[in-house]
Amino acid sequence: MTDELRGPVTDIEWRAYHDIRRRVLFERRGRGSAYDPNHPDESQPGHYPLILWRGTEAVAVIRIDIDGGVAIFRRVAVREDVQRLGHGRRLLTMAEQFAQSSGCSRIDSHVDADAIGFYERCGF
């Protein structure tokens, strides 16, 4: 099965993007009501909301903000039912490729303390 990292286009794809973010990053952390799918950061120039597709299935999301030559990985989330299957690692690899192809020479990420070990295991 082929993996693809690309931005949401249709309403259904946007819903998948927001559903993963809302559930994993907000509801699981007790902040579900704080999630705003219409937050203006999602549509700012240089901000790239992306979905990792496994075939036709949305399995993970990331937003990459590009400022000059720096890519900032934000809001990385893998659907709960497919965590620990390598999707997060694949997402980060493909996000690095996206950043490099966009002219970035540095990657930053501000992550939750619970995720630091994962990022270290991925080489960050």
Protein architecture, described:
With 124 residues, the protein is α+β, with helices and mostly antiparallel strands. It has a five-stranded mixed sheet, sandwiched between helices. The mean pLDDT is 92. It is globular. Helices cover 30% and strands 29% of the residues. The two termini are 27 Å apart.
Write the layout of secondary structure elements.
Layout: E1 3-6, H1 11-26, E2 47-54, E3 57-67, E4 70-78, H2 87-101, E5 106-109, H3 116-121
Parallel strand pairs: 4-5
Antiparallel strand pairs: 1-2, 2-3, 3-4
* Beta strand count: 5
Mean pLDDT reading: 92
Largest sheet: 5 strands, mixed
Low-pLDDT runs of 5+ residues are: none
Global geometry: globular
Structural class: alpha+beta
Short summary of the structure?
This protein is an alpha+beta fold and 124 residues long.
Which short descriptors sum up this protein?
5 strands, globular, about 30% strand, alpha+beta, 5-stranded mixed sheet, about 120 residues, single chain
